[in-house]
Design goal:
- Keywords: Methyltransferase, Repeat, Transferase.
- It holds the Pfam family MORN.
- GO terms for molecular function: methyltransferase activity.
- It is a single chain.
- This protein has two domains: about 90 residues, no CATH class; about 90 residues, Single Sheet (Histone H3 K4-specific methyltransferase SET7/9 N-terminal domain).
- About 0% of the residues lie in helices and about 70% in strands.
- It contains no helices and 15 strands.
- It has a 15-stranded antiparallel β-sheet that branches.
- Strand 11 and strand 12 form a beta hairpin.
- The chain is elongated.
Amino acid sequence: MRQGINIQVNIRIQFYIQVQIFLYIFQQNQQHNKQLICYLLFQIKNNNNLFIFYLIKGELNNQGQKHGKGKLWYQNGDRYEGGWLNDKKHGQGKQYFKNGELFIGIWQQGQRFGYGQYFFSNNERYTGNWLNDMRHGEGTMWYNNNTKYIGTYYKNKKIWQWQIYRLLWLGKRIILGPWKITRTKKIKKRL
């Protein structure tokens, strides 16, 4: 039996004008464990001027969905590198945004979940927990005016008590302080 690498190209045309080009590598003619070398999706709709372009490099499951490790380049200049599960971002990953922002962390079912870091284009950053694509739980926010907030988020909003740290530059020394505890709106849980 001849062993080696077989290359297969599939082209599908769907919906208005949507062209998908797949380039697979199969080991020993077995279709499972296929690795997607390149995936291009062009979607053109004339009336609404809809032009969508994706470039993907990674792995697919048997249904042709992104699954495993891979990279996705979006038409708008954003890029994702990391884990996939049934066509959704899942596990450890990095999302690079065209405006210079970056998220490094954990994804679940296509949304930021668990621990992650978000770096803003203005040099501010958030490090902490995420739930359903929102800052949720314990977190730390660093602002570009040398202020650091440590506290709790609920659906992207600061709640409970926050510790505020401000770095003061005195000659060659850095002094951390003074810090204060502030109170923000409490959210009551309804039973």
